[in-house]
Design goal:
Beta-Lactamase; about 45% helix; 7 domains; flat; alpha+beta; 37 strands
Length: about 1050
């Protein structure tokens, strides 16, 4: 019996050992599986956070892009209307700064100074801000101007108060001339209110379940400072996404769950419990012979503990719906303890209608023979709160296949469902917003060249939405130049990571011609572009509106150019809001000085009072009011007629102003014509007469006629016109008079005075109406003295021509003597110099030792003096020949001419290591070939001389073209000179440096000055001591 007991004891011990090993094995396996399950749960949690964070990123990017897209139309209008005023700016911006957009204000800064703002109220403090000097906004503004792209700055504190994201877009005007560069107009800035941006993007949503932070002010990405949320989040192992901004910048957005990582990991806890239970079950199975009853009791207790702690609702009913078991969560639902629930049905705890519903679900589950899932809202009796439960009911069978009952497990999916609904609403809102703004998104994988796009992108292409599309499918809608541009942009994005922003013409799948704005942003991984994301916007309406606006402006401008009137649009109080007139019209004041001012305030006081009275009259009785007034103009004083009327009741006033000076003068002239002409006729100092064309009888003469001709008025009126002419001229006169009808005439004749003397006269005549009859008036000028002086001038000219001939011969003889003298100087002065040079060289060669050091020094000085004298003679001869040489002007290629001179000096340039740069491509000038060559050679030699001591000597020859000339610049980095001596350097024999330091004769620049002057040009220089010198040649084209 003792042995049996010992054997039983050993068996029991071995059973415990194997049970323990089995439990440890299962627990180890469970721990490994639990670890991986926990990691999977954490990865799933991070994935869910990333999904929600990506949604927030899409909202942020969408809201920023939508708000900035509103500004593009404004920049297009400014490009066509660079002189836009505050009123015009406000009229356009009024539709942009409103709900549901986040724009707080829009400003425009011509020449980088903020002068246009909407809304102006509340933003007055920002007007006048100079971006070029503002410490906080200068860098971003200059970057926008220099890059030509939109630049995002901020969040920044506004001058007028508040905080906003500032987007600055440069505005460029078309080139002033075809082929020229665009002209920078200024910047358009849009302030996106940060609080509105955060609110619309959902960053403040209390149900979001995330803690969020943003950094990257001014689009600085992850290297920028934090401007939203807790800085500590960046060190809390967050999920991170990049928010792409227009213009190439980005923000980094990070998030962690509101309660931290791992707080939702119930699955891992359940798995560990199940592992423990499995281990326990394994141990019990191994030890079942010895401890079968205890293991079963322990297993039941642990299963009960599991049911007590599991967060789901778990219950078991029999086939008749009677509760067999339930956990505490069911107790909370029904408001009773398990002991009170078991043995009862749903009808004992919930309303009959709901109980019947539960019972029908149980029956349906049994009938289906397998699990059934449904969702239903229930109210918990414990505290009255409601939950949406996902219920899984499954039939339970005995070993013979008979139905034992129904097992139910219900999980609270309220939060998940609400999150999904919120996400759907946000997606719907984003889709509607994109549809309203006609903005869609897209992305494709570089490896496969396939991707996806939003429904709005599909609508823009006139295609059905698809989950998978090829890049070629999107490119197929572009044609011609637009196709080439988008393909090149996509290639650059993939190959070089270069973002793009293009506006292109587009033909949809249904053949509808559209204009779209397409933006692409490369996404990099490990320095390589793996994906390209972007957006596309239908801007057809904007393009058509711009075209209609341009056409309407052209039509309106054409109308105003065809009318001689000036048009003023005014408020009822006379404030001028617009002005139109022909471009050739000179207004009383510059339009900038009278716009937005009252008409009566910019006119002289007396006229202003009259205008104010006219405006008051229109306000009282309406209709048309006309007034006339005089104003000083460029050409003197002009007479104007103003017609004022109101367009509509309480509406603006239109004033049509016309210069009626001519008409007014005609009226005045007409009213006083007879008296004035009579006065002019009588008081004219020149003799005048009026005669009848048919009878040739004199009808009237003035006082000057009677005084000059010696007749009394009665005697003169008794004459006929031919009586004033010598007999020899009368027939010619009569023949001429028959052909003068309707013509003006000027001619010289001889006239007879009463005393018979003959005078030379110049007669000017034309037709007129005299006392109601056709007549002709003649104005007579006595030119007898002028004729005498003309005879004297002709004689003087003849004498002058004779003197000029003699002087020309004398100059020719002098030039001949100068040529002879020049030859004599060249021959007679150089001959002794050659002798001195030869003998000195013989002394050095033959008597080098006997001369001694001092003698050799003297001979070296003699030889240097001889060489200097020879150069001086050569330069003097060159200067003399230049005076006598003929100038043969012809069109020369300046690049070729400079190249020939540099080729002659190439060996010295290379030996000295001088860097040469020449930029004369396409330039030509009218010059003498030899003269230009002499000028360039002297200037190049001058540069070589004075760059001798420069560390890195350079020589640059460039040129520019003007309307009538070409200017060459020869620049070096030599010793330079003081500009006080500028005129002196072009005089002969003038030097600024000692000959011992820089050899020369002082004639070279004088030759340059004389040669350029003879070719019809000019030469000057600019320099500073030690900073090199630049010589400029201006030659005619």
């Amino acid at each position: 019996m003792t042995a049996h007991a010992n054997s039983g004891s050993g068996t029991e011990a071995r059973a415990w050992i194997f049970a323990l090993l089995a439990a440890l094995l299962v627990l180890s396996t469970g721990a490994v599986v639990g670890h991986y399950a926990q990691q999977r749960e954490l990865a799933q949690e991070r994935s869910q956070v990333l999904h929600r964070l990506s949604t927030l990123r899409a909202r942020l990017e969408g809201i920023v892009n939508i708000n900035l897209s509103l500004v593009h139309g404004l920049t297009a209008v400014i490009a066509t209307r660079p002189d836009i005023d505050q009123a015009g700016f406000a009229a356009i911006a009024d539709g942009l700064v409103s709900e549901p957009y986040a724009l707080r204000n829009i400003g425009a800064a011509p020449d980088m100074v903020l002068s246009l703002m909407y809304p102006l109220a509340g933003n007055e403090a920002a007007v006048g801000l100079d971006y070029r000097t503002h410490p906080q906004q200068r860098e971003a503004a200059l970057r926008a101007r220099d890059s030509g792209r939109t630049v995002i700055a901020g969040p920044v504190a506004l001058q007028q108060g508040g905080v906003a994201i500032i987007a600055r877009k440069p505005v460029f005007l078309p080139p002033a001339q075809p082929g020229g560069e665009r002209r920078f107009w200024g910047l358009v800035s849009a302030a996106i209110d940060v609080e509105a941006l955060y609110r619309q993007a959902g960053l403040h949503d209390p149900d979001l379940g995330l803690r969020i932070a943003l950094r990257g002010s001014d689009g600085g990405g992850e290297s920028g400072p934090v401007f939203f949320g807790d800085t500590a989040l960046f060190g809390a192992d967050p999920v991170s996404v990049e928010v792409a901004l227009p213009g190439g910048g980005s923000w980094q957005m990070v998030a962690v769950p509101a309660d931290g990582w791992g707080h939702t990991n119930q699955g891992a806890l359940l798995l560990r419990m199940m592992s423990f239970l499995v281990a326990l079950a394994a141990a019990i199975m191994v030890h079942r012979l010895a401890r079968a009853a205890g293991v079963l009791a322990s297993q039941g207790a642990r299963m009960h503990a599991l049911l007590q702690t599991i967060p789901d609702l778990v219950w078991l009913k029999d086939a008749k719906g009677v509760f067999l078991s339930c956990n505490p969560r069911v107790e909370q639902l029904l408001g009773a303890r398990e002991a009170d629930i078991v043995g009862k049905t749903d009808h004992d705890f919930v309303p009959a209608e709901l109980a019947d519903h539960f019972r029908e679900n149980d029956r349906a589950t049994i009938a289906a023979g397998g699990p059934r899932v449904n969702e239903e809202w229930v109210s918990f009796a414990s505290d009255g709160h409601r939950e949406l439960l996902e219920t899984i009911k499954s039939p339970v069978y005995d070993q013979r296949g008979g139905v034992l009952g129904v097992l139910g497990i219900a999980r609270d999916i309220t939060r998940r469902t609400l999150d999904a609904a919120t996400l759907r609403r946000q997606k719907d809102l984003l889709d509607r917003t994109g549809h309203l703004a006609k903005v869609g998104g897209w992305a494709f994988d570089v490896a496969t060249m396939r991707g996806s796009w939003t429904d709005e992108t599909a609508r823009i292409h006139d295609l059905e939405p698809e989950p998978d599309v090829a890049v070629t499918q999107g490119l197929a809608c572009f044609h011609g130049e637009s196709r080439r541009a988008i393909e090149q942009a996509v290639r650059d994005a993939i190959d070089y990571g270069r973002a793009y922003d293009l506006e292109l013409e587009f033909l949809s799948a249904k053949g509808v011609r559209k204009w779209v704005r397409t933006l692409g942003l490369p996404m990099l991984e490990d320095g390589k572009v793996v994906r390209v994301e972007g957006a596309i916007q239908d801007v057809t309406e904007r393009k058509l509106a711009e075209a209609r606006a341009r056409h309407g402006e052209l039509v309106l401008d054409s109308v105003f150019q065809a009318l001689p009137d000036q048009f003023f649009l005014m408020d009822p109080d006379g404030t001028i809001r617009d002005y139109r007139a022909q471009r050739s019209t000179d207004p009383y004041l510059l339009r900038e000085t009278f716009l937005d001012k009252r008409l009566q305030d910019v006119l002289p006081a007396d006229i202003g009072e009259r205008m104010q009275g006219s405006l008051a009259e229109i306000g009282e009785r309406g209709g048309l009011v006309t007034c006339e007034y005089d104003l000083p103009t460029v050409d003197g004083t002009s007479h104007f007629e103003a017609r004022l009327t109101r367009l509509a009741e309480e509406g603006p006033v239109v004033a049509v102003v016309r210069d009626i000076s001519g008409e007014y003068r005609s009226r005045l002239s007409l009213s006083a014509s007879e008296a004035r002409h009579r006065q002019l006729f009588e008081r004219n100092p020149a003799p005048m007469l009026v005669y009848a064309p048919d009878s040739l009888r004199l009808l009237a003469v003035n006082e000057a006629f009677t005084a000059h001709y010696g007749y009394s008025r009665e005697e003169a009126l008794a004459l006929n016109l031919p009586d004033l002419y010598p007999p020899a001229d009368k027939q010619s006169l009569i023949d001429l008079l028959g052909r003068l009808a309707g013509l003006a005439y000027v001619g010289e004749w001889r006239h007879l005075r009463k005393d018979g003397s003959v005078i030379m006269i110049e007669a000017r005549s034309h037709d007129l109406c005299y006392e109601g009859h056709a007549a002709r008036v003649a104005v007579i000028t006595d030119i007898t003295e002028r004729k005498r002086m003309e005879d004297e001038i002709r004689q003087l000219n003849a004498d002058l021509e004779e003197k000029v001939g003699r002087r020309t011969a004398e100059l020719a003889a002098a030039n001949k003597e100068l040529q002879t003298f020049t030859y004599s100087v060249s021959h007679d002065l150089k001959a002794p110099l050659r002798g001195i040079d030869g003998y000195s060289r013989l002394l050095l060669d033959g008597h080098y030792a006997e001369l001694g050091e001092e003698g050799r020094l003297f001979l070296d000085n003699v030889r240097r003096g001889v060489a200097h004298m020879a150069r001086l003679i050569d330069d003097l001869l060159a200067y003399s020949r230049l005076e006598r040489a003929s100038v043969h002007g012809q069109t020369l290629d300046l690049s070729q001419a400079a190249g020939m001179v540099l080729d002659d000096r190439r060996a010295e340039l290379q030996a000295r290591g001088i860097g040469v740069k020449i930029d004369l491509s396409g330039l030509s000038a009218c010059a003498d070939p030899e003269g230009l060559k002499m000028v360039l050679r002297n200037l190049v030699d001058n540069a070589l001389k004075f760059t001798r001591d420069s560390r890195s000597p350079t020589l640059a020859i460039s040129g520019t073209r003007t309307d009538r000339s070409v200017v060459l610049a020869i620049e070096d980095n030599g010793i330079g000179f003081d500009m006080r001596f500028h005129d002196r350097i072009f005089e002969i024999f003038q030097r600024l440096q000692r000959a011992e330091d820089y050899p020369g004769t002082g004639v070279g620049l004088a030759i340059v000055h004389k040669a350029v002057q003879r070719m019809g040009g000019r030469v000057w220089a600019e320099s500073q001591p030690g900073q090199g010198a630049t010589f400029y040649l201006e030659l005619p084209r």
